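Sample entry was shown:

___
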Amino acid sequence: MKPQLNWLDDPQVFRVGQIAAHSDHHYYLDYDELAAGTTKWKQSLNGIWKFKYLPNSQKIPSNFYCKDYDYSNFDQIKVPQHIEFAGYDQFQYINIMYGWEGKSQRLPAYTQGQTIPAGSFSKSNDNPVGIYIKCFDLNSSLLDRNIRIRFDGVEEAMFVWINGQFLGYAEDSFTPSEFDLTKYIYSQNNILTVAVFKRSSAAYLEDQDFFQFFGIFRDVTLLAQPKVHVEDLKIQPLVAADLFHASLEVTLKLKGLLNGEKLCFKVIDQHNQLICQQEQAAERTVVCKFKELKRVHLWSNKDPYLYRLVIEVKTQTDHLLELVPYQFGFRRLEIRNKIIWLNNKRLILKGVNRHEWSATSGRVLTKADMKKDLKIICRNHINAVRTSHYPDQTFWYYLCDQAGIYVMAETNLESHGSWQNGTSWNVPGSIPQWHDAVLDRARNNYELLKNHPSILFWSLGNESYVGNNLVDMNNYFKAVDPYRLTHYEGTSRDLSYETKISDVTSRMYISPQELKNYLENDPSKPIILCEYMHSMGNSVGGIEEYFTILEHYPLYQGGFIWDFIDQAIAVKDPLTGQMVLRYGGDFDDRPSDYEFSGDGLLFADRREKPAMQEVRGLYGKN
């Protein structure tokens, strides 16, 4: 398919040429690779790329993706990195508004009777573009295999070419985008070209309360597949009501030319003891069931016990083709008598909302950053995290599995600015043309992260009002995963959707008295405060009142403080020469929500604020 710039304007075009979303499992050649935690089948493309910044989409040369294009005058940029942190464009922090407000007049497509949006992104003079070029040779271990490329995160819309051949188009900034390179890749002198646009129709769905960045901000990796490859893995552990009997169902989807291969499934405990194993013939879809498991060790915050599933893909002569490991946990999550129970104990969430953030690199986080965040969370007795308001790097969920942190896994959806002044053009709402885009985001979130025991809730997104499209998102999650709960706060804007969306009632910033009033009027659902105790300025002092309610009303099950860390950027002060933290509005960014970006329990450099003492004391007592 020939790429078209007007895809930027149409919410019905959000993925072209992409490989379908699948589980985040790792795979290895053999047990030596598994022990080392590395594989020859991966090749990182992180590092220095050629780069050209263009202020708007009208400045793009017509042949920039061709193999013979002269890019000798391009700059260089580090990948991963936000384009703004490389010195281009402008830092801008907004909470509710869209970044172009006050500069351009726009309406989303298919609202107010229109089809072509007013002030389209493809013809805009305020839609910056970054053109990336990476020249590379294939590592020898990847030769003569099926090869794909994975972009773990690109804001906000991208077109991709390899050696002059168009691969595809992608939106949904915070989940991986994969493309098949096999037909077009060379052993040497490959030219990868990526055009990243700051704005597209996806901008209406990614109006989160954060700095508006763009560019390739997560890892870029080449992946080779063995002859027979586990493309997708679903692990479904089930625990009976007696917490004694359990079962395990593993479903695989295989790719490649099958020729009598077989699969060996092994379940291993933390003492490296083999609990059970089973061998089956390889087929396109394989389901392995372990039905009679007894005395399984349950996973929880206090005891995050993980088993290890190991899948061997072998030839008829037992030659190992691929090795797939995955840690998983047994737990029982349910609503009973309008109360959420985990392993037959009332669930209490002592949580925080967490943006991915670094003062020196924005939403480009290292594993060391994430490990430090987890240590701070555990040290302060926080037991739950809401991934506000998008999927995090997958490494974060593995850390939460291991530490026993309960996760509310949020879909990449927030359209706050589309309904702040009314709902006449709210998206996605019930508009048919926006339906598939938000369902795709729900699917991406689920398929990628479905095997993590830490995830207790699938959240439809944040502050996107309500509508039939969100009903269908909720129904999707319930259909594919009846063993987790769904969450969405927006039903409070229109109570007619209260019975159609979300397993829990969710509220933001209601007072203790409002919370008591809800609990004393025969509520139909348990209640969670997805945001409370807004940690800005001299805040969090009133948190004890909520804990008093928590002790006396079982249907109140806790909540998530807003939020974990300030969004501020470290810059050198021109007068003193010292590094200082700057907030929204400090970069001449307009529109801006100014210092509202500073409402964390931590400063942006990860120093704890005094408010954390109150959190640590109360979260640790209860």
Q: What stands out?
A: The chain is about 15% helix and 30% strand. The helical segments are 31-36, 367-379, 394-403, 435-449, 468-480, 512-519, 543-552, 611-621. Residues 568-599 form one domain.
